[in-house]
Amino acid sequence: MIKCIATDMDGTLLNSMQEITEENKQAILKAQSQGVEVVVATGRSYREATYVLNAAGLTCPVICVNGAEVRSKEGEVISAHPIPKQLARKTAAKLAAKDVYFEVYTNQGAYTMDSDKAVSTLVDIVMSANPDADRDVITYAAGARVRDGLIHMVEDYERLFANDDVMIYKFLAFSFEDGKLEEASESLRGFDELEITKSGIENIEITHKNAQKGIALEAFTKAKEIDLADTMAIGDNFNDISMLEKACRAVAMGNASFEIKALCDVITDTNEESGVGKAILEVL
Is 8 known to be catalytic? Predict the structure, then answer.
């Protein structure tokens, strides 16, 4: 019997307009009404994740920034796995040397030094999951990152590294140029404390090695006294692999890549067809 359901957001719970469909919403509410824990597991910051959940009228615990932070339904920080500041400085220097744009995710939100690229980064993530979507429409929707203050501007990332109140959770690096991300990834291979994955065609995500969705999901279910044998995970991209491998029932979205589908027990409909809602109703 499934007692915990973990779902990714972009390309999974969210459609191309970065919204939770009514079918997905009702399925989550039905699961919660039956005592099933529904936890969102996303690469987004807590603020960006709850922005979408609040718009749909949903409240869920959140595994955010790929597992770097876990928060309760009430928003309380349950656990955190930041990148040490000196390692964060070295990581930023490596990315800058490779001339790739990157954002820094922290316990106080996400930061950018280029607001235009902050929008195009999210467009990339959405278009990767929804290749047939209208890029202009997606670009306007993604603009909410800047319009609604979901990402902050900073002149120099050193301000974050030097602030003792700021914990560095993730670097999101982005490039359209062939080979640049591979070079950036390779330059970071010697840093054993880092985990490198991706959530879109033109990005890489860099977190602490203990900041993974699967590790966070295992800790979350243990705290709730739920066995992983009673857990289902739903995802579409490479940063979902760790939790898909941990869960007893692994569900790939219809829009997921072949590699992700091959890892999973079940393939549901696409994110445009409310695949998450269908997967939830199937196990209730």
Answer: yes
- pLDDT tens digits for range 221-271: 999 999 999 999 999 999 999 999 999 999 999 999 999 999 999 999 999
Q: Which of 185, 208, 231 is the last residue of a domain?
A: 208
Check if the beta carbon of residue 185 is closer than 8 Å to that of residue 173: no
Residue from 8, 10, 236, 240 carrying the catalytic annotation:
8
How many domains does one find in the chain?
Answer: 2
Alpha-carbon gap, residue 194 to 173, rounded angstroms: 14
Q: Are residues 13 and 70 in the same domain?
A: yes
Q: Confirm whether pTM is higher than 0.85.
A: yes
The predicted pLDDT at position 16 comes to 85
User: What six digits make up the tokens of 159?
Assistant: 């301000």
